[in-house]
Amino acid sequence: MKRWIVLAAALAVGLAGCSKKTTAGAPAPMPGQKSTAEAMLAYSHSMSVELPTADIPPRIDAIRKACISSVHGACNLLNVDQSSTGGSITVRIVPEGVQPLAEMAGAGGKVSSRTTSAEDISDAVHETQRDRDQLEAYAKRLDDIAARKDLSVTDLIAVSKEQAAVAEKRRILDNAAADQHHRLDTNLLRISFNDPHARASRREFGDIGPVMVDSALDGTADALAALAEGLPYLIIAFPLAWLWWLAWRKVTRRWRK
Q: pTM for the whole thing?
């Protein structure tokens, strides 16, 4: 009886171990990441999905439509690329929308790879803010100068030109700051699709050309080598054959006489 209890316990442990291994082998989710004010990390994700060639264009189109219509939150379509055996789509979307788009991309296919990376842009953000603060201080001094009553016309024109230059620099810095905050508030997601079976077939067929060229080159080289080896014998044999023909002709003429 004790033996049966021990065997049952061992079997249960083995089944539990198999169950854990199966769960660990399942593809991990790809949730979006939110940056913090302290870290200032710009997150990006990439994943590769294997699908039949016929299913790739409609899958890319479905993701494109979901992005354009903001089904899973604010989304910007950045790039769509398609080929005969695959394609890719790149979007910038709010963190909450990364996982739904990833699930849409991998439905019915095989996710061969997925990666998440982060770029620390805190230095760039702080530098942009510092430049904006310095520019604002300079703009205030220009405003104070322009408000003076004793300013000559020439000086007023010079100050006005400088104020216009400051306004242009402010516009550039504001755009840079907006782009940086947009990168912090959203995630970059690039999804690649391919059909491994189609690629393998094209690769095997494509190898026929190089193989034929190599074979032709090898055959030509062998023929030239054989010709080079036999050329000296031809040079010697031709005069001998000509002399033999002349001698034979003389002999036959004498017989005829």
A: 0.64
